[in-house]
Amino acid sequence: IIVATIRPDEKEISMFSIPRDTRVTIEGHGKDKINHAMAYGGIPLITDSVELLLGIQIDHAVKVNFDGFINVIDALGGVNIDVPEKMYKPLEAIDLLPGYQTLYGEDALAFVRWRGDGTGDYGRIARQQQFIAALTEKVKNMSIGQALDVLDAVMDSIETDMSVREMTSYATNLIGLNSEKVHTYSFVGGSVYINGVNYVEPDMAAIQEIVEKMQHGEPKAEPDAENSEAGE
Fold first, then answer.
1. Is 52 within 8 Å of 24 (Cβ atoms)?
2. In angstroms, rounded to a whole number, what is the distance separating the alpha carbons of residues 232 and 229?
3. pLDDT of 47-67, one tens digit each?
4. I need a labelling partner for 124 at 20 to 30 A (CA). Which of 35, 115, 218, 229 fits?
């Protein structure tokens, strides 16, 4: 689950990943893991749950399935990724060697799904953010032909409340976006066990600080007083 804020005037995107085991209030179901909201009520209920957790309004939602992810990455011609270690889990079709390489659809999906390094969802979120940065660089440099292929793959692979016109408008406003303008934030919380079930309990004070940065950008650094005087 990724919450994204798009600021087209600054050509910036902020992204905040929410672990699937995060304990939240799900309307009609009490406290539960946030990913259960999708099973209980689909996109509308998981959207409501995210809004309640973060205290924000979600304007649009997009759901991408595994096949759709594979098709979009293949349409892009793969994404260049530095795989940090051997990733092997045959039951989930994951078999990657370490090193800098181009990952196509199925291998790219294996990379973002990998959780075999002992870091659980937090490690997977970090890899997803690494992948998004690499994907941004790939999209920035793609040709018109690739863009049309990707558009076809996207339209066949997603479920969303956005129209084609709205999606095209977002894409047009963000032409030229580079990875330095994509800000990613890690979830802040701790592991808790309740009735034998493991949850991630959010640190709401820290999360609200992240939401503020996402909505308004990173605070500008104050000029150093001594250097300012020296410059005068």
1. yes
2. 5
3. 999 999 999 999 999 998 888
4. 218
